């Protein structure tokens, strides 16, 4: 299959999916010929491979087959908090617990087919785990570049798939550029957050959402945003469906950043086309590890996605994230990572300021499971202590109190 | 809908799904009229609600809608270890990270519809989390009875859904019986590991597996086994499909216990109909927290399931579990909990002793995600440390070593 790999901004393109950046500087993506695609063309495959006709590779072997097909659940318990009709697309229900598996499912087999002896990535979070897992399932060597001061818990999560873990002593933020150069110099397919093949995989989340609503569409989709890769995938998905004539009224894309590192929000508010990288003294600590990115490589494309769809980019604080994470669990039964709570916290802000109406159908996308950061025993938990012999009596009275307090 | 709730052993039954035990002492299950069911009767719903015609309730609201629909992945990387053609049914990809959500999805809404003011359970593991999450998503009070000496990490995992957590001072093993009595005395729907409505939910995992293979069926299914509840669900599913005429050659059910607490294996090997509860000095420590049960309430039914399908019950050691958990990650890209690794460790033993042939298609069912027990930073991890300026040169040489060693 000959690919069309293009730049969303200047329109230039070629067939090289391994080339991440356009000569104009912007990231590229794969543009399929979707003009004749219909929902009935979907394959009878599990998960994201249903959309094989719009993907740059045929369904591969390995854990890639478990990617996609995550639940989309109407969650009325969150309506009051979000100020709209809430649907939750739980991307945490993936083999490595995050939407990253959609991207790895395309990017890793594609890089192998392109002749790379090994796969590599620059990440110490969900992308590292996902890339390592997908390479492992295809029996390929994987190199993960992590910062020298990586916390031991993160290291353990990545190490279980047994990639070669390289702690890089030096400016970790500069490694995105280094990685692209390494890919040219060595037989390693370096997969960064916005490799064109990754973006292809991400768009399947948009396909699943839109197919569930078809022939209608949700009014808006709210996603946590870091590098801008997932937002780009969502936008690419919208473009594909528009090209196919399957989306009359595209959902608005709302992208939510952590206030501790929000260059895309700042650029959106200032009406700029591109974000400006934040200096260390412009960023802060955050519980939203997965989205604290001061220099997002697909920031310009994320801005374009929000503007083109009539959406917005906004930021939320850690206090809002904590509150939203709690509501996900207590009102809807979902355990999401702190960064993923940005989807709900963002929706709350958007409805408060009138961007989202109460009768609108809004899909929140928690991008990763919360289980990777729970169970350490650090939290203090209120419990009752009862002797077994007193259980019936004490439970009866306890229950009366609890039910009365509701 | 009038229910038929029966005893697999003596055949007695009535319509009361809240009654867990038969007067003969054995656990009961819900027996639908499946005689006219065809695959084409499946609903156009996501996940397990596809099988609504064979379930005791209509599709409920809430997180229940996210249950089921887990990936079934051909995983050739595990063939050598397991000694057969391996498929992985990854039950960890659930809202609370375990197959328990299938049971809660039926049992919790059913108990609410039956008029209970609150839901309760006896568990400090996956079932506690799942029951609490499902009750939360339906805005109902939930009471979780945990042992007094529960580890703080476990408590944190359960507490996120904000149930009333009661630490019981006394013999925790005796609480199964207490719970059934409490359910009669108080307006609490106490859901134990083998409540008939839970078993109904579990059987959907079997339906998904068999529908994927239809009109054929896998040769065998290997599941970790603790209380015998999930094994019962698998067997109930087989019986439903046999009643419908959809299963000519049912898969053999192999049930795997931890050698540290394996009363069902002992009874199987001794040719007994029921397991004998193990005393504290007959049990040991194990990393397989989720399946260490010295007194399994559905042990007799699990034995019958294994024998009726031509399968077996067997045990594996912690060393075998550690090795199998590693292979799941390194050869297939799945992060499973230690107890879930019993599926692969069991298959290895079964093929070694000739119970499973190399050309047989065998479904391993890791029942829970490993992420709840990872990321604590306890593991020691080998890494390379490289200065950024030396990255290209050092990576090239590192990679040469790694690829050469393959």
From TrEMBL, chains A, B:
Disordered: region residues: 270-301
Top-level division of the source organism's lineage: Archaea
Keyword match Lyase: yes
Transmembrane segments: none
Keyword list, A-Z: Lyase, Pyridoxal phosphate
GO molecular function, one term: L-serine ammonia-lyase activity
Cofactor(s) needed: pyridoxal 5'-phosphate
Native organism: Halorubrum aidingense JCM 13560
Protein name: Threonine synthase
Domain Tryptophan synthase beta chain-like PALP: 65-368
A Gene Ontology BP annotation from the UniProt entry: L-threonine catabolic process
């Amino acid at each position: 299959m000959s690919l069309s790999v293009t730049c969303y901004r200047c329109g230039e393109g070629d067939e090289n999916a391994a080339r991440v950046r356009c000569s104009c500087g912007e990231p590229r993506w794969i543009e399929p010929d979707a003009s004749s695609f219909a929902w009935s063309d979907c394959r009878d495959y599990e998960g994201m491979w249903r959309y094989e006709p719009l993907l740059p590779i045929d369904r591969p072997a390995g854990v890639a087959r478990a990617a996609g097909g995550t639940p989309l659940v109407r969650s009325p318990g969150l309506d009051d908090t979000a100020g709209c009709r809430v649907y939750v697309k739980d991307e945490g229900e993936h083999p490595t617990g995050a939407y990253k598996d959609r991207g790895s499912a395309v990017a890793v087999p594609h890089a192998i087919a392109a002749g790379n002896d090994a796969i590599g990535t620059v990440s110490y979070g969900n992308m590292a785990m996902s890339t390592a897992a997908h390479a492992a399932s295809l029996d390929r060597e994987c190199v993960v570049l992590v910062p020298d001061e990586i916390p031991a818990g993160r290291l353990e999560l990545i190490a279980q798939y047994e990639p070669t873990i390289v702690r890089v002593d030096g400016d970790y933020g500069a490694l995105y550029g280094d990685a692209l150069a390494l890919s040219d110099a060595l037989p390693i397919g370096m997969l960064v957050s916005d490799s064109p093949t990754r973006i292809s995989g991400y768009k399947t989340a948009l396909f699943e959402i839109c197919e569930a609503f078809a022939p209608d569409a949700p009014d808006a989709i709210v996603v946590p945003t870091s590098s801008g890769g997932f937002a780009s995938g969502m936008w690419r998905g919208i473009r594909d469906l528009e090209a196919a004539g399957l989306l009359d009224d595209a959902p608005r894309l709302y992208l939510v950043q952590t206030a501790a590192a929000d260059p895309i929000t700042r650029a959106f508010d200032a009406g700029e086309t591109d974000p400006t990288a934040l200096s260390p003294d412009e960023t802060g600590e955050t519980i939203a590890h997965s989205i604290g990115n001061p220099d997002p490589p697909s920031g310009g494309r994320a801005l374009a996605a929000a503007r083109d769809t009539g959406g917005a980019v906004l930021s939320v604080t850690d206090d809002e994230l904590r509150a939203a994470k709690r509501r996900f669990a207590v009102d809807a039964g979902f355990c999401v990572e702190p960064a993923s709570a940005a989807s709900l916290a963002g929706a709350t802000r958007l409805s408060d300021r009138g961007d989202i109406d109460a009768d609108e159908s809004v899909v929140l996308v928690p991008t990763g499971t919360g289980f990777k950061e729970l169970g350490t025993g650090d939290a203090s938990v209120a419990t009752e202590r009862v002797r077994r012999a007193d259980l019936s009596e004490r439970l009866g009275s306890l229950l009366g109190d609890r039910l009365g307090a509701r």
